[in-house]
Request: fold
Amino acid sequence: MNVLLVEDDPLIAQGLLQALKQSAYTVVHAPYGERAEGLLLANDVDLIILDLGLPDMDGLELLRRLRARQSRVPVLVLTARDGVEQQVAALDQGADDYMEKPFDLRELEARVRALLRRSHDLSTDEVSLGALQLSPFQRTATLNGERLELPAREYEILEILSLNAGRVVTKARLAQRLSREGDEVGDNAVEVYVHRLRRRLQDSGLAIRTQRGAGYVLEEAG
Amino acid sequence: MNTSLGLRSLLLLLVGGPLFVLLVIEMLITFGIGLHVTNQVFDRWLLDSAYSLAQEVRRENDKLVLYADEAAIEVFEWDELDEVYYRVSTLDGQVLGGRSEAWVNPDIAALKKGPVFTNVRMGGEWVRSVTVLANPDSPRDSALVSVAETLHKRIPLSRTLMFEVVLSKATMIVVALLVVAFALSRGIRPLLRLSQELASRSPRDLTPISALPAPKEVRTVIDNTNRLLERLDGAFSAREQFIGNISHQLKTPLAGIKLQAQLALREKNLDTAHQALERICQTTDAMTHLNNQLLKLARAEAASGRGLRNEPVALDNVVREAAESLRELARSRKVKVHQNINGETLDTFKVPGDYYLLRELVWNLMENGILYVPEGGNVWVELTRTANKIRLAVKDDGQGIPREHWPQIFERFFRSKITGEGCGLGLAIVREIAYAHGATVELQQAPDTSGACFVCTFPTMENQS
Reply:
């Protein structure tokens, strides 16, 4: 799971980066609004943790622009502002959840999981598809009860395909998901990783089908 | 309520007291005049009797005699209530008629000028007596004529007079005091209403007092009170906003501390936990700094609110001391601090004020310059004096402050730079201290550098308002 953390306070940012990475998320950090906008264009993120008091712009403005671009990525607002009005304003601008500082780390982690489950339409922390079991929050996958030891990029492709099982995921989106700043991943590389995953899923009853000109679909073979 | 009762009693005392004394004096005067007039009437009658007797004194056969028959004397002596006495005698004491013993010892010289009235005791009671001289023009034929009368008619009459005067005047006094009391109650009713309105207010209610029908003077009190309430309301809102700001400013470091503490608690690796604890310590230092700055701001604010110690402070010394204490910081940032003090005498840069607050002001401006100028930059501190102003300028050759931040630069918690250690209170403290000293502080465009230039203008010792 990819998380964008928008927070200017170095202490909180460092702490959250550490905590989120320990929880097996891939985290990118933006200390101010402009940087967050840039990262949002380059990355496919599953969740944004957004501080409102940013040095260069109001977090609510960032949120408004995000929703104006039709993005449905869940946003957890984290702020030192208090009062019901502030909460209402944030929720009305498109925030999915709201936490006041100082917050409890365990609660924040639980809310992050809840937001991610909801946005990926999951009832539990696990995705089950035939013989495949995937735990996005542990970053693990098992096939027929056996642990699949996957390199990071193969795991990420399997995760995004499982979370969107039965639906087409474009090659471009997969490429964006794998890309890091200064380490861009092209379509050819995506094809290589998909090819490797197909070999791992052989005889499992699952198949990654190529939708010509569109992308890939993970589905039960039959 | 005590004060309003007090006001009523006070006014009643101030108006009713003199009025009461005046009416009592008037009563005494009226009584005195009445008594005098009645006495004069009775005295006139007594005198007439004496004169009529004196006319009967004649010389006959070379002897002075009183020519009065028994019947005339009887008529003369008869009185329903009073005893009437008379005595006619020659100047050398020979009795010509009436009582043999004399009740007065008349002074002939006084008698020659006119009748002499006296009150004497006779037969155990007071009598009114008059003595006249018969035939005053002929010393040989002169005789003393004394007539006396008891006071049986006079005393009841004066009593009646006194009773009537006292009764009427007392009625007047009571009525007058009642009228005064009534008028006073009516007069201070708007004040009582105002007092009730103020007394029934909650301490948080700072809305203006409603427009009560009130006389001009009370209206003025209400208007002035409303103006005060308005100012208080403004001050309270500013304070509440400030406290809100403080709370907001504290939340972020508190959140950081809690987060790092939770991370340290779940950490198995001691080194990693140690790093988190290190960060917590640094943050508590920053919070301590914020707390100190808040205290300084509160002190500066209290000083401008309540007035400050007005001792002469030599700003040139303050600048030198600040430069000395900032030397290490400047050295570590390779910043050169230039002092430009053009003082002619010891007193040139003396301003009235509080030494510790002024040191804080100068120190803050200089520290800002040293911290925000790039490494290897310059900071200049200048002191100049004109006829009635002392100008302190602190400028640097850094990048300066973006123009759009100028209007807010002295606001509390405003920070122009995204990075930096500051908590955004330094310049707010500077401004508050400047205000307390009747000085102004502003950000100016220095003519010779691109950096920030803060200028503080102080009144001189002679020009303090």
